[in-house]
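User: What would this chain look like folded?
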Amino acid sequence: GYPIIHGGGPGQMEASAKGAKQAGGKSVGLCLHLGRKETVSVTHDVSIWFDDFSPRIDTFRHLSKVAMVFFPGGIGSLHEATSAIDHIMQKKAPVRPIIFFEPDADNPFWHGFFQWLNDTVIKNGLLKAEEIHFVKIARSVDELVGFIQEAKTKSKS
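Assistant: Here's the prediction, encoded as structure tokens.
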């Protein structure tokens, strides 16, 4: 029952689009011209193209009403995640979970980012942990789904 909004590319983005379709849901690809050959999933229902990250990030934030989930990715994924966190902290976007998914417990992808947040940013007083109470780490699919279902329940009340 969740519309899936993703980057429109291969890999996890394509898998989420296929999952949405199999479940009878809708999929929206927010595709980005990167200056190289773009590979776009043909499985999504709507494709919206962007030339820059900024309007794409704004669109992600605008369309993501319940939660935002970040799978392992590159600089763009981290940029989009931290931008979403920053906008919520500044009260420019509604509070909703920003969820980082860790698919491999033996090789945690987001560990370094959270270690930096805790050991450098929070430790040096540049951020308080309670300011990012909405940031979650999901270490299993069940935990991820639970976070989203909890957020959907809260958004209805």
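The radius of gyration is 16 Å. If you want, I can go into more detail on any region.
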